[in-house]
Write a structure and sequence with these properties.
- The chain is α+β, with helices and mostly antiparallel strands.
- The protein has 3 domains: about 70 residues, lambda repressor-like DNA-binding domains (434 Repressor (Amino-terminal Domain)); about 60 residues, no CATH class; about 240 residues, Bacterial polysaccharide co-polymerase-like (2-Layer Sandwich).
- Helices cover about 60% and strands about 10% of the residues.
- It has a 4-stranded antiparallel β-sheet. Strands 1-2 form a two-stranded antiparallel sheet.
- A hairpin with a 5-residue loop joins strand 4 and strand 5.
- The chain starts with a helix and ends with a helix.
């Protein structure tokens, strides 16, 4: 019996200490003296039912300590006891802090093993579509004479041009000077030419065609294009492992895009000029034939205006000559404008800012590694602590 009193008294004492309750306060709520409470805790005195009921009424949580000798539950009836939750975490705060520090050290250390990348960008600005730019005086004269200036209807999606196979292939075929002073290609820089363990069993896997395809795909993954719809500003961003190469590649891609669009526009102007020139030769020949027929008719039929039938033939021949003449004059005007457009040297895109060598790496962000690992450490250690509880 005395052993039971001692065990029960220990339960009262443990409950009081866990909940940080003074002996005076508990004794007052139980309706006994402090000395009596001390005797209860030491097991010297058996607690009667009235005092036990007052204890349960004053401290309902004590019933959980008494029944089944179980710990208080953090989640009971789908309700979280945040007071108990934070108390458990506070008791184990030393473990949580040490575990978090360990995760931060491991996270920071792993950031040094991640490959460094550098970022560089070049910005392009579209030229204004001004028909009077460049050879404007000649075009003004042409417009005064009734010659309509052709509008440049060529629209290019810069993102598609930058990520085209043409630009990627030219960039991959180039040799770049690295920050170590050696000349390397992007294939060598990315280590794509090195044989993998699969290549030992199948030599065709590491052939040049496959390596080239991998390089093109990797190049497109390392380059991005953004376009401001309001201002038209185009930004080409490149991310590569070497700070000198990344700036060189960005500038090279920007220049290639500028040259490609300029070349395509010049080619279109040349194509139009050749077409108009060929058509002009044909119309000129047809006009000469029509004029010769009209001349012969008038020489053979001096009094054609007195004969309705002959006058009808004359009218038909005259209309044909006039129609050919109008077509010939129009083609001549368009040919002059096509020649003007062909010799224009104004670029469609202006390079606003060239890419410069970055002074700092763009990734990995060690501060982000540190914050992320600290967050993981706190969450993991807290979960482990609660599961242990």
């Amino acid at each position: 019996m005395e052993a039971n009193n001692t065990a029960f008294g220990q339960k009262i004492k443990r409950f009081r200490l866990i909940n940080d309750i003074r002996q005076e306060d508990m004794a007052e709520k139980m309706g006994v003296s402090r000395a009596t409470l001390i005797n209860y805790e030491k097991g010297h005195t058996k607690i009667n039912l009235d005092v036990l009921d007052r204890l349960k009424s004053a401290y309902p949580d004590f019933l959980l300590e008494q029944n089944k000798n179980e710990k208080p539950k953090i989640i009971e009836d789908n309700i979280i006891d945040f007071r108990l939750l934070f108390r458990v975490l506070g008791i184990n705060k030393r473990y949580i802090i040490l575990f978090t520090i360990l995760c931060m050290i491991l996270g920071l250390g792993s950031s040094f093993s991640v490959k460094k990348y550098y970022s560089a960008e070049i910005s392009l600005y579209p030229a204004k579509n001004d028909n009077m730019q460049g050879l404007g005086q000649f075009q003004a004269i042409a417009m005064n004479l009734g010659m309509n200036s052709p509008k440049n209807a060529q629209n290019f999606n810069i993102s598609d041009v930058v990520k085209s196979r043409l630009i990627a292939q030219k960039t991959i075929n180039q040799v770049w000077k690295s920050s170590f002073g050696i000349n390397v290609s992007l294939i060598d820089l990315w280590g794509l030419s090195e044989s993998s363990w699969i290549g030992r069993f199948n030599s065709s896997i590491t052939d040049s065609a496959l390596i080239n395809e991998k390089a093109i795909k990797k190049f497109n993954d390392h380059i991005s294009v953004t376009e401001d719809r309001l201002t038209g500003l185009i930004t080409i961003n490149t991310v590569i492992e070497d700070p000198i190469i990344v700036a060189s590649v960005a500038n090279f891609v920007g220049e290639q895009v500028q040259n490609y669009i300029q070349k395509e526009n010049s080619a279109q102007s040349t194509k139009e000029k050749l077409f108009i020139s060929d058509r002009l030769d044909i119309v000129k020949s047809e006009l000469e034939i029509a004029e010769h027929e009209l001349k012969e008719f008038k020489e053979r039929n001096r009094g054609y205006d007195e004969s309705p039938e002959l006058f009808m033939i004359f009218s038909r021949l005259f209309r044909e000559v006039e129609a050919k003449k109008e077509v010939y004059l129009t083609l001549q005007q368009q040919l002059e404008l096509a020649r003007i457009e062909e010799v224009k040297q104004t670029p469609i895109l202006h390079i606003l800012d060239h890419a410069v060598q970055p002074t700092r790496k763009s990734s990995p962000n060690r501060l982000l590694f540190l914050i992320t690992s600290a967050f993981i450490g706190i969450i993991s250690s807290s979960v482990i602590t609660l599961f242990k509880y």
